[in-house]
Amino acid sequence: MQSHEQIERLFMEAYEEHADRLFRFLALKVSDREKAKDLLQDVFVRTWEYLCRGQKIAHMSSFLFRVARNLVVDEYRRAKSASLDELLENGVLAEDVYSDEGGTIFSEAREAMEGLSRLSPEAREVIEMRYFGGLGPKEIAAVLGESENTISVRLNRALKKLREILKYETNH
């Protein structure tokens, strides 16, 4: 069993290393900065409780993203809040949702977000985890409970489809 000091050190290292990536991932998923902050706090509260119960975490990044993903699923079930797809369908643009302290994102990023919204949920999820969450295929596989090969194939197919969408939109 780990001492309280060891648990605290492990927890603080995890927070410092992963909090920013987790926040970006959560903000993307819930489209609400304040809700993302609340969920981020919940991720770390649950992680702290898990560690304090004496549980071991083999891969901190995968564990944290799995907790975050589960909290997002719970949030959608409980609040049935608007997803990114619903916001885009209702005319809320990506820069309205993802503005950074009043600034706006570049038009290319907006186009990419709109293209991303046209992918299947499974394809969108692996791209979000990879490029917004900064997870590798092995970590994504651990979060989703699938093989690394399956995730790599899904990621490659999703990127190919996204490129096709963006190329089509650029030409029309």
The fraction of residues assigned to DSSP E strands is: under 5%
The H-and-E topology, N to C, reads as HHHHHHHHH
- The CATH level-2 architecture of the domain at 1-81 is identified as Orthogonal Bundle
Mean pLDDT: 81
State the major sheet: none
Distance between the termini: 61 Å
Low-pLDDT residue spans: 91-106
Shape: elongated
Q: Helix share of residues?
A: over 70%
Oligomer: single chain
Describe, in plain words, how this protein is organized in 3D.
- The protein is an all-alpha fold and 172 residues long.
- It has a domain at 1-81: Rna Polymerase Sigma Factor, Chain: A.
- It has 9 helices and no strands.
- It has helices spanning 4-30, 33-52, 60-79, 84-89, 94-97, 107-116, 121-132, 137-144, 148-171.
- The longest helix has 27 residues, at 4-30.
Detail the topology: elements first, then pairings.
Blueprint: H1 4-30, H2 33-52, H3 60-79, H4 84-89, H5 94-97, H6 107-116, H7 121-132, H8 137-144, H9 148-171
Could you write a compact summary of the structure shown?
By secondary structure, the chain is an all-alpha fold.
Descriptive labels:
single chain, 172 residues, mainly alpha, Rna Polymerase Sigma Factor, Chain: A, 9 helices
